[in-house]
Amino acid sequence: MTPSVKLPYHTLQESPNSRGITVYDWQISAWTHPISNATELDAIQASVGIPLPEMTFGNNVLELEHKSSGWKYEFSATHALKGVKNGPLEEGDGGVKVRYAESWLKSRTGPNSTIPIPETSATKPYDWTYTTTYGGHSPSSSTELSWRPADPENETHAIPMAELTRQDPILFYAEIPLFEDELHDNGSSDLLVRIRVMPTCIFILARLTIRVDNVLFRTHDTRIFHSYASNPPLIIRETSGWEAPYDRVSKQLQKKDDKTPLTDPTWIAQILSGFPKGVSQSEGAGTGWRGMGTQREILVLPKPAP
Predict the structure, then answer these.
(1) Which SS3 state, helix, strand or coil, does residue 103 take?
(2) What is the span of the domain harbouring residue 22?
(3) How does DSSP classify residue 301?
(4) What is the number of structural domains in the chain?
(5) Is residue 1 part of a domain?
(6) pLDDT tens digits, residue range 95-117?
């Protein structure tokens, strides 16, 4: 730990399915539960309108509340799945073709399904890869504040990676899985949210990782950062999307007989983000996915009353 970094006053909360921390003007809570039961899944599916991933954690939530302003921000499976395309895929949706499209679809829509899907068609009644650019949301109970584009010339509008890589103590850490699916043995799709609360800042990473075997890899990251010292109080939100052909990524394996890294979201993200931007954030895997690229926004919080 850097000698000048002091531990702020904070309190921790814990119950069987939730953990939280109160620090400065923030209340942060993470709820983690088992996979949703049948009744809960029916309600979620009715809400989102698509067949659900094999493992849907409908009761898992990460919530941040800025107590003095009433501003809140959340991550939840239901809202994430509402970001999955429901309907035929169009230009920009990043549709993925696989040989087993029709059999996969029937496995999800039931044995009596009569939806005709040509084997070579890229359009589906919904995006079977569960691609979503969801990066959290403010619930209806939150004070309304607006995000605006960050100023690329303003250093305070960028996430300070040096601060995040310092060996400062972690006051609070949580992992909140939202969904996972093996894409009918054609790969995997999962969305995991992680939060670190440190003496000087809050950092969140929500990462969607998609692997379609022999077709592509795709990653979508949302990073949320807040420094307690920011003046005025500032939230930075950075969203990035990458994709590349499966073979191009697999060629980066250090050991050709060890394919374990191909199932590691951290390794996949490192490889994709390490490619030139023209490769993984423009050309991609030729799907035309609009989620490729990087955007940064800021939200200014009201200053607490003296």
Answers:
(1) helix
(2) 10-300
(3) P
(4) 1
(5) no
(6) 997 755 555 555 555 555 443 44
